[in-house]
Amino acid sequence: MEALKTMDLNALLEKNRAFTSLGKVANYIPELDKANPNAFGVCIMDLEGNEYCAGECNEKFTIQSISKIVTLMLALLDNGKEYVFSKVGMEPSGDPFNSIRKLETSSRKKPYNPMINAGAIAVSSMIKGDDGRDKFNRLLDFFRKIMEDDSIDVNYKIYIGESETGNRNRSMGYFLKSEGIIKGEVEEALDVYFKQCSIEVTAKNIAKLGLFLARNGVTSTGEQVVPYKIIRIIKTLMFTCGMYDKSGEFAVKVGLPSKSGVGGGIVSVVPGKLGIGIYAPALDEKGNSVAGTKFLEDFAEMFDFRVL
Ligand code: GLN
Known about the structure:
The two termini are 20 Å apart. It is globular, with a radius of gyration of 18 Å. It is an alpha+beta fold and 308 residues long. It has helices at residues 2-5, 9-17, 67-79, 81-87, 101-105, 117-124, 132-147, 156-165, 167-178, 186-197, 203-214, 228-241, 247-253, 290-302, and strands spanning 41-46, 51-55, 61-62, 153-154, 199-201, 258-260, 265-270, 274-279. The protein has two domains: 2-64 and 199-301, Beta-lactamase; 65-197, DD-peptidase/beta-lactamase superfamily (Beta-lactamase), CATH 3.40.710.10. It has 14 helices and eight strands. Bound molecules: glutamine (GLN).
């Protein structure tokens, strides 16, 4: 993209680095607490193969909730959209990502959407495979294919922490089982979910994921891995539900389909143009990267990239 060639990405990043001091690093697992709160990295990739990176864009962090969009793609490929959305809704919940509140009271008797934990755990249970190990290996291969990086793997310290502290998620899993939303073993579904959250990536890996979505499901080798009709669903759910219970405000201020994770990552898509990967682990009260969000507000306005 010509417009980006003249941009001073370092200056834009450094201007927004100050916002890292307004947030807090996730600390529900001791391992996550070790992240440097002032770290900030951005990587932007365009469809012509240009790459623009600034700051700590090679630093590793766990993908956390960003994994929800990748698992949803594979679950849709494995099961089709009729089945998936018979078990999980498509509406923003307006509640925190780990809320249990509406699970029982909702008249639909299913999680509001696949971007909140309850919906994501249901989606993780739909990945096909002979056993838990095979299901997760298929999913990990799918992450590697989309991000075009065979070295992507699980951070096992974080995975153990997720599993040991994951009792709220576990309670949702058992509730979903009691409602017939999870078909197989609950612990197997939870294990896939804890592992997918613990996949370690860099801002560059996340930008590649964004680029894959910007290209409507095609990798840089030209292979159509996911059909457009699934990518459209993913981008729409990112736009409406991707930033937890701040998705509405984010849509107004940034206006790009995006998904955040409590590891400090954000993936953003400028459809047909760019994939953006961000790492800045200091989070706001909803669990979104503060500096990452501020950077995206500036960037989207500067180049008039907003989709709406
Ligand atoms: N592992 C976290 C959880 O399940 C991920 C959530 C997130 O990134 N919001 O609570």
